[in-house]
Amino acid sequence: MFKNQFPFFTNKPEQVYLDSAATTQKHQSVIQAVNDYHCLSSATVHRGAYAIANEATLLYEQARDSTAQLINSPTVEQIVFNSGATESINTIASGLQPHMINGRKILILASEHHANILPWQQLSKRLGLSIEVVNLSAQGQFTQSEYDAFVKQLDTNVAILAMAHVSNALGNIYPVEDICRLARQQRILTVIDGTQAIAHIPVDVENMGCDFYVFSGHKMYAPTGVGVMYGKRDWLDDLLPLRLGGEMITRVSFTDAEYQMSPLKFEGGTPNVAGVIGLGAAAKFLKANILAIQQHEISLFKLLSRGLEKRKGIRLFGNVCACVQHNPEQLGHPNANLALGHSIGLHSFIFNNHHLYDAAALLYQKNIALRVGHHCAMPLMNVLNIAGTMRVSIGCYTDKQDIQRFLHALDTTLAELDENADCLVALKPKQQVNSHCDEVLPIAFNIKQARGWDNQYRQLLLASKALDSLPVEMRTSEYVVFGCESALWIAYYNDQLCAYSQSKIIRGILALLIEKVTQLTVTLAGNRVSDQDNMDAACFDYFAYLTALNLTPFFSVGRRDGIQNAISAIKAKLVKGDN
Ligand code: PMP
């Protein structure tokens, strides 16, 4: 519906982009506005008096106006531009003064992004407050029972409630209008992180009555490095600025300064003028289209939900009902907004039988962009007792074909990962290694022969079956290696180097490495080589070996680090003769 308004998709028609919760593609009006600023009115704002400087200032302030309209801010002065949600929350948490705090507790939701946890940790230490967590269900849902328990936590001892409007990890839409109304009755300061809401559902800060509302440009079709902090006037007057420097003062001496009023008080230094102008264009696009976007995303979410629910071996987390459109006539009525169990166009799930990173690696090869991991919500993953999830997130440019292509790619991926062990030639490196020539190292040979990354992955999956698995009881902290986007374990067991990872791809790489180690450390007769030869094996460049097999270019940074760590662990064992 909106896809043709996003030049990215004209340039990359083959790309299925389902990672909009991480960042969005840019709307054509945003690209045009940023480009026009650079080509026609590139100057800094609020200072120069020449024509293009005035033009730049005008465009910058018009963007503030468009942003104020998007979220129904009562005045433009309550819209502060900065680098994004992270900076906004840091500004609030670090700028609160003791007289602004009315209670001893900071309440946060279990699903908060790290950006809405860490600044509060600092504040709690600075002012001696405690942090209390609002729970979700065991499946990460927020329904009536979680809401009822939450309401009980909103007592007079709570000074600050910091929560997302929509969870980035689960997609849950939280009933912030009702919650802010209850919080106001207890004089609790409310900080709402709207980063994942702003591009998907209508936001009205006046109706919500929150004290602060923050979001980032890059999640709403605008550039990276720009964002917004909305605040109620009284709070903005009292809040101390974080960025001290040019433009934000009325008077400065060597020992003292007087600050401007909001918003300039918080916009010290040369701002991201191009970014702000782009954000203004995105705000206009969203203001004009948000109801149509919401409806479009609801229908895609339903399609995705049906597709995932039909498939076996998938466990969904978070709210699963599509969000409902607000009835504008009811706005403002108590409880009119209460919508529990709803989600934006985002699904978060795990596989019962497969490692997330294996599935993701195969999906990436099929041009599907999505995200696996903890999504910067590590405490939530701990509460849910999982390492992470696969997250599929929809934007206004997503279409039916994207969802269908994803579901089809998912089927192929799961079939590849499910392949029956019986029909595979599982090679035991120990039995096959009988020469110092790579050509007869079967795993290395097969990988070298494989053409294309798909085939190489297939070979790694096959190789995983050849790994001498470290027994479960030895997968302990003593033998753990971190950094492969999941833990792995390496140790000698029965005089043999063994390893294990939940990821089949990592198991394949470990099998390949151990095949080489075995070649270098076991004689033709099956005996251990001399200590000197063992040292030589410890000095061998295993990473270069993987590179020569053409495996390294596709490793993510996390995987690369983890594999380096695994190699270091193997070398340490060779040096120590640690068996
Ligand atoms: N809050 C939420 C809910 C988010 O999803 C994100 C980004 N993933 C952030 C805060 C931080 O945003 P940024 O990195 O743009 O500052």
Word description of this protein:
By secondary structure, this protein is α/β, with parallel strands linked by helices. It folds into three domains: 149 residues, Alpha-Beta Complex (Aspartate Aminotransferase, domain 1), CATH 3.90.1150.10; 192 residues, Type I PLP-dependent aspartate aminotransferase-like (Major domain) (Aspartate Aminotransferase, domain 2, 3-Layer(aba) Sandwich); 154 residues, Sufe protein. Chain: A (Alpha-Beta Complex). It is 42% helix and 14% strand. It has a seven-stranded mixed sheet, with helices on both faces. A hairpin with a 4-residue loop joins β9 and β10. The longest helix is centred in the middle third of the chain and has 38 residues. It is globular and about 85 Å long. About 4% of the residues have low confidence. The site of 4'-deoxy-4'-aminopyridoxal-5'-phosphate has 14 residues, from α4.
What's this model, at a glance?
The chain has 579 residues and is of the alpha/beta class.
Describe the SSE topology:
Elements: H1 7-11, E1 16-17, H2 28-40, H3 51-71, E2 79-82, H4 85-95, E3 105-109, H5 118-127, E4 130-134, H6 144-153, E5 158-164, H7 176-185, E6 189-193, H8 205-208, E7 212-216, E8 227-231, H9 233-238, E9 249-252, E10 257-259, H10 273-310, E11 314-317, E12 321-322, E13 342-343, E14 346-351, H11 356-365, E15 368-369, E16 371-373, H12 378-384, E17 389-393, H13 400-418, H14 429-432, H15 442-449, H16 452-464, E18 480-481, E19 488-493, E20 496-501, H17 504-521, H18 531-539, H19 542-548, H20 557-576
Parallel strand pairs: 1-15, 3-4, 3-5, 5-6, 6-7, 12-13
Antiparallel strand pairs: 2-8, 7-8, 9-10, 11-14, 14-17, 16-17, 18-19, 19-20
Helix pairs in contact: 2-10, 3-10, 4-5, 10-13, 11-13, 15-16, 16-17, 18-20
The structure holds 4'-deoxy-4'-aminopyridoxal-5'-phosphate.
4'-deoxy-4'-aminopyridoxal-5'-phosphate (PMP) binds at residues 84-86, 113, 115-116, 164, 168, 193, 195-196, 216, 218, 376.
